[in-house]
Amino acid sequence: MGELTLRRRHDPLVDAEVYEVKLGDEYLMSSLFTLAEEELARLGLDAVTGENLQVLVGGLGLGYTAVTALDDVRVASMTVVDALPAVIDWHERQLLPVSARLVGDPRTRLALGDFFAWMRDDAGPSRGSNAASTYDAILLDVDHSPRHQLDPSHADLYTVDGLRRLRGHLTEHGVFALWSDDPPDDEFMAVLSTVFPGARAQVVRFDNPLTGGISANTVYVAGGQPTIA
Q1: What are phi and psi of 22, to 5 degrees?
Q2: Among 44, 80, 125, 184, which is least packed by CB within 10 angstroms?
């Protein structure tokens, strides 16, 4: 998909160290903006009932979704899948602000593999003896949005058939939550609601020190009750 770069710099505007990830010439994420990634975990897990939760996170990135999920004491185990070996290596070497918390928590398992292939039951990462067969929550933050994917091979997940396959990886009352950089998408909501009745789109607004204004992302939250055909 392109050359992956992790950059650390001092930003005089906020007088703090900033960590940024680029794929080719495209910015993927920045530690300046983590609220929506954190809300992905909070909103997703808030919609799950019960204890001893098994969680799957698609996309490791800077780690903020994963460490926020670990803040929920009900989480018994968390598998984080990422397709890029360098990203996992960054955290195992504890190069990022949350890496020590993430890899030091015994509930965490980092898995190298293609999340989207796993959802197709193809050559996804090996589940291993420590991974759950189904999950109470799947939290996904890989693509820019359902319409703007990092790779064309991801597109099938955002269809009715793709979401039904994902639904098969959830427990009966499991929840799927998805981060998006775009505003709520009515067309995707219609697709999502076909598989997950009661799905909703939550706009997450946050201060943007670079523009001096307010920016927003979207978190889709879909409950685990499939539509009866």
Answers
A1: -120, 145
A2: 184
Q: Strand locations in 106-212, DSSP E?
A: 108-112, 135-140, 170-180, 200-208
Residue 189 per-residue DSSP state: H
Classify residue 226 by its DSSP letter: P
Question: CB 88: neighbour CB atoms within 10 A?
Answer: 18
Q: What is the CATH number of domain 34-222?
A: 3.40.50.150
> pLDDT value at position 43?
97
Q: What string of DSSP letters covers 157-187?
A: GGSHHHHHHHHTTEEEEEEEEEEESSPP-HH
Q: Is there a contact between 183 and 203 (Cβ–Cβ < 8 Å)?
A: yes
pLDDT in tens, 24-81: 877 888 888 889 999 999 999 999 999 999 999 999 999 999 999 999 999 999 999 9
Q: Which helix (H) or strand (E) holds 107?
A: none
The helix/strand/coil state of 25 is coil
Closest to 200 measured CA to CA, from 215, 184, 187: 184
Model confidence, pTM: 0.90
Residues facing residue 54 across a β-bridge: 77
Of the CA atoms within 13 Å of residue 9, those in its CB half-sphere come to: 11
Amino acid at 192: L
β-pair type (213-222, 170-180): antiparallel
